[in-house]
Amino acid sequence: MTDDAREARVGAASEGGESGQTANTAGSEAIKWGAIVIIVLAILYFLARYVIPLF
């Protein structure tokens, strides 16, 4: 197979559907939102433990 034919096949495969964007799986979304929840809870814990008692 020549390089030109190979590049044509790769280009045709990458054009189908999502125009170069990678699909997000449910697992990656769950990890992202789980991390956001943990960060928010850590901030709220810090505020409740160290900042609010100062007032």
Features:
55 residues, mainly alpha, 71% helix
Give the amount of beta strand, in percent: under 5%
User: What is the 3D form?
Assistant: rod-shaped
Calculate the mean pLDDT score and round it. Answer: 79
Computed over alpha carbons, the radius of gyration is 23 Å
| Helix content percent band | over 70%
Structural topology:
Blueprint: H1 3-15, H2 26-51
What does this protein structure show overall?
By secondary structure, the protein is mostly helical. The protein has a domain at 25-55. It is built from two helices and no strands.
What's this model, at a glance?
The protein has 55 residues and is mainly α. It is 71% helix and 0% strand.
